[in-house]
Amino acid sequence: MSAQTLYDKLWNSHVVRQEADGTALIYIDRHLVHEVTSPQAFEGLKLAGRKLWRSASILAVADHNVPTAGRAAGIVDPIARLQVETLDSNCAEFGVNEFRMSDVRQGIVHVIGPEQGATLPGMTVVCGDSHTSTHGAFAALAFGIGTSEVEHVMATQCLLMKKSKAMQVVVEGALGKGVTAKDIALAVIGRIGTAGGTGYAIEFAGSTIRGLSMEGRMTLCNMAIEAGARAGMIAADDTTINYLKGRPFAPQGEVWNKAVAYWRTLHSDDGAQFDAAIKLDAAQIKPQVTWGTSPEMVVAVDGLVPDPAAMGDAVKREGAERALQYMGLKANTPITEIKIDKVFIGSCTNARIEDMRAAAAVAKGKHIAPNVKLAMVVPGSGLVKQQAEREGLDKIFIAAGFEWRDPGCSMCLAMNDDRLSPGERCASTSNRNFEGRQGPGGRTHLVSPEMAAAAAIAGHFVDVSKW
Amino acid sequence: MQKFTVLDGLVMPLDRANVDTDAIIPKQFLKSIKRSGFGPNAFDEWRYLDHGEPGMDNSKRILNPDFVMNQPRYHGAQILLARENFGCGSSREHAPWALEDYGFRVIIAPSFADIFFNNCFKNGLLPIRLAAEQVDALFKAVEAAPGYRLQVDLERQSITAPDGTAYKFEVEAFRKHCLLNGLDDIGLTLQHVGEIRAFEAKHRAAQPWLSA
Hints:
The complex is a heterodimer.
Chain A: H1 6-12, E1 15-18, E2 24-27, E3 30-33, H2 39-48, E4 58-61, H3 78-94, E5 97-99, H4 109-116, E6 124-127, E7 141-144, H5 147-156, E8 158-161, E9 165-172, H6 181-192, E10 200-205, H7 207-210, H8 214-222, E11 231-233, H9 238-244, H10 253-263, E12 276-281, E13 288-290, E14 298-300, H11 314-327, E15 342-345, H12 353-363, E16 374-377, H13 382-390, H14 393-399, E17 403-404, E18 425-428, E19 443-446, H15 449-458
Parallel strand pairs in A: 3-4, 3-6, 4-5, 6-7, 9-10, 9-12, 10-11, 15-16, 15-18, 16-17, 18-19
Antiparallel strand pairs in A: 1-2, 2-8, 13-14
Chain B: E1 6-13, H1 21-24, H2 44-47, E2 79-81, H3 94-102, E3 106-109, H4 114-121, E4 126-129, H5 132-144, E5 149-153, E6 158-160, E7 166-168, H6 173-181, H7 185-189, H8 193-206
Parallel strand pairs in B: 1-2, 2-3, 3-4
Antiparallel strand pairs in B: 1-5, 5-6, 6-7
């Protein structure tokens, strides 16, 4: 057999049947469900009198709408409360395993899946959420779907889809001080654009990627969708296997050994062909900061806000002008002169234990600047929170003036009460800087946890590589 | 799902690239557990000058006169003309629900984000990719002629402009078949229950840890 990419292997091992035009029926191993994109799917099943094909494939959790403070009082917003209660009642009715809001295992769906070992190498993983690409860090084929597809998977355990093209992103060498997986992700998006990966599944490879922890790999794959790719993935290796060992949903004993033997085959073969390939030198990547309203509008922290007048393409120039106006920024301003009002450390991109540790290391023994109105740290799950507290990270954050919250999506998309007011500027470890994403009129700058913590202390962006 | 065959419709231009699904339908409206009623909040932050929340009477809100959707010449538009990477960002199907509920049946752009593109077909909405130069020409034509309409014929995979210019477009055979006939995907897939069961048995035997 000819050399296969990791994507080929994952795809081929899940094809149930194929139509003449190449549309395939793909079997889905793991279905993660949250409260926002599932109620209409459950309703559709009920209306059609259909059952779940395999309820054990589903793990459900409420994350988008949950409060991150005063949780004992429940959800105040009646519409949000109804949505979470609807998830609870649907899961009870259909026999779905759900971590409820009071459960210590509750958290952001893309944090808890891997944390529980519910995401395993070789799986197809779907969720009604675009950041499902996160799970590809485990050599899984993982991608976001819409609600109609959520219902389709519930009823048939399959999805109708066509195979994407394959892109390889190779990063080689050692990362500099203060440079993280988040900076790699933003640098890749800056290079290929938010539509650069459209129609592709991206495999991240190279020595830099092999050197990343699972947390870092998840951060990177999480943002594959911001480059336009539905799926991002990384080959399985010792790091993957060591992370999974002993997790509640991971296999044990003899089955574990058998699984590991299979997982070790989940990499692209030597000589495998990709439809596109790009290469980055890790040493050239600096801490990144977005300046506009699309993740591709990004520069290194030692750079300047770009000048739209210097942009040749008319659509790009108009987009940049509109973005600068929305962001309240002037061309050629040094990034380090941009002052911030709020800081958000959290989200499915950067709310894992390593992110908490990295931010705490920067904040330790210091205090947030007087112009920073709110700096909040929102751990990705109850278990991340517990672990962080065992390590005393909560105390470091609180002493430094940060708020230490309960787990959820929080101000990444501001569906709950955590949001920016119009005009407020935020250093955020989340994944999208779209207009209004963190609250109407809010201005988002995407950065790593280290960069966000440093910005909170300084009151403006600073280069953590020189911190 | 409603069928799509031929549409003769008014065109509304939305001249900006990278229109994301947060812009198409802001997050506060995603709290709904229903599938319908999102049309009045399509492009909410651009369309109204005040801040929208679920449950508001949208007919009493202040419209942004500069937003294209509020210009009388585009009222009743069924074809949305857009730029690169339309529908990027979140997988929320509320975005195509909102566009469809507003009255759009066709979106023409040089490129679409994958998940949004896929979601459109599940809702009787036809996303059409044309070359950037063709889209550019259409933007100019719409701007120049109030009441500009296009005829979209899915069977023939062709768009016809008022001056007779025809634009051919590509659509995957399977998606075309489903849209032309208004077929329910789930019903189609369930015709292959035997094959799914056989695959599942083989898959579980090979990877027993997956059945946990």
